[in-house]
Amino acid sequence: MLLDVKKLNTYYGESHVLQDMSVAVKDGEIVALLGRNGMGKTTTLKSIIGLAKPKSGTVLFQGKDITGFAPYKVARTGIGYVPEDRRIFPNLSVLDNLKMGIKHGKEFQTGGQNQWTFERIFKHFPYMKARTNQRGALLSGGEQQMLAIARTLMGNPDLLLVDEPTEGLAPVLVEEVRDMLEEINKAGVSILLVEHNLKVALSLANRVYLMGKAHLGFTGTVEELKAQPEIRVKYLEV
Length: 238
Ligand SMILES: Nc1ncnc2c1ncn2[C@@H]1O[C@H](COP(=O)(O)OP(=O)(O)OP(=O)(O)O)[C@@H](O)[C@H]1O
Ligand SMILES: [Mg+2]
Prior knowledge:
This protein has ten helices and ten strands. It is an alpha/beta fold. The model has no long low-confidence stretch (mean pLDDT 93).
């Protein structure tokens, strides 16, 4: 198991936002984490990467216990995080935004197939090359999203956590972001994806987790979910 999250309990003040939340990602998988607004999907990602501190439970990554590690330490173990708000630097060029994603230190120089360089980014995603000198502020929402993902790749993650990458994007850009994630996965990076767009999520994922309020409601393959429409009604449709 690449990522094995077991029985996390996370609070915001008195509010018990994650109740025994578990999720796992195998090497090479795309796993989708779905559920209605406010169920705790973002909090699950934040509890993995150290932005939220679980009171109990464990986060194992490549067999190592990283529970409660600070975000920079989690990044060093090989987990990349693309937050919902993208955080592109508006006054920096596309190239300089990408440079901000480079992580220094030997633990980031994998030397293996997951080593990302500008050349490799441009080869996989040519539209990025065409915009190297453009300022972040001048990119469309979809281009900013793709840049945010590419910037995280520059840190050579083995696992990418992506929060709502297609939110607010026009349909054609939704497709482009979807295709980008598929390509990244084919290039050897596993992905834990939080996504509201069910069509996108189910077209990418090997397995899905559906969150009910604060806890796990359903887990299975995409085929299993498709065979049980009542589950979709219970956890997804409003
Ligand atoms: N920083 C915070 N302080 C207090 N409560 C918070 C905080 N962040 C989130 N919450 C609450 O925790 C619960 C879970 O929030 P979370 O953002 O994890 O849900 P989500 O599933 O990602 O929802 P969405 O689909 O809207 O992004 C919600 O009730 C939310 O209001
Ligand atoms: Mg969220």
